[in-house]
Amino acid sequence: MTLLTTLSLLSTFLASPVVAQTWTSCNPLNTTDCPTDPALSTNHTYDFTTSSIGTTWNATAGSLKYSQTAGAYFTIATRGDAPTIRSKYYLFGGEVEVWMRAATGTGIVSSIVLQSDDLDEVDWEILGGNVTHVQSNYFGKGNTTSYDRAIWHPTSFQPQDDFHNYTTRWTKDEIEWYIDGASVRLLKSAEANGGKNFPQTPMDVRLGVWAGGDEDNPKDTVEWAGGQTDYEEGPFTMSIKSVRVKDYSEGKEYIYRDVTGSWDSIEIVPGNSTALKTLNAPPSLTASQRWNKLSPGGKIGVGSAVGVTSVALIVLAALYCVRQRKAGRRERAMADLAFERERTELSAYQMQMAKGNFAVSSKPF
Fold first, then answer.
1. How many CA atoms lie within 13 A of 315 on its CB side?
2. Is 254 helix (H, G, I), strand (E, B) or coil?
3. Stated pTM of the model
């Protein structure tokens, strides 16, 4: 269950604010001046076993590590850690499919969150201490007057032991949650307070892990998360191999045309989205690939330039060595002269001492 950090807990049952994942910087229900939402407008799979999160995600809290076998590691190593990533694009209807191995640990929560600017929200949450169930949930417009939306789904596996597929499919009329390809929940719009609490505005994707069992969290949150977290038992790591994201709408961006937050109030601006351009851009060539693409004449030109540059560098290095050698000789001569001067002064002083002639300074110490 996820709520916003700006909302107070209004119930003692299943309260769990996901501090790292859920927040909004501008609520279109309160103003018409919020920025537009850039659209994904395509279907794309992120394989974290072969690449990082790239330029279409933001790391909003903490940092990630990667491996070729387990993908992206979201790790709570010390108290206060809550590694989270957030997509730079939005979906207006669509699918989110995540291959995830949940983190272990009492009070540790692995989360998959879809959230809009006006606080529509669709969630998966898996507790580190619960090896038999996972939770699905949703919110509409940040409405937290009741906590009866969450459903715990029994599993035939331990979510912390291996990777499993958690998928959300969202349309104007319904939301469906799947585990390993099998539907476990279907929510019709009319079932969500007659549609008023049904998520219906463009949502981004947020993935992260947080400590619901932290001792500073409200008592109800700690209880929901399974108990108080002992950080000495960590680190606690959620792993994500891949994420497939599909936007059912096509356009450049999404605009709230009024403050109702309804599906019909959203305008789809035609054009290619920034995310689509970024994802379809050809990968950067390696140095060897750029060399192979050169014509024979171009390679000769590059080789000649490299040769000339190498000769110039050798000449400059030689001149530098000569200059340093001359400078060294001058420094040595000056040092020898100073040594001779000091030795002469010392001999004169010793002679005065032998004769009993002492000089007294008139300056105070």
1. 6
2. strand
3. 0.73
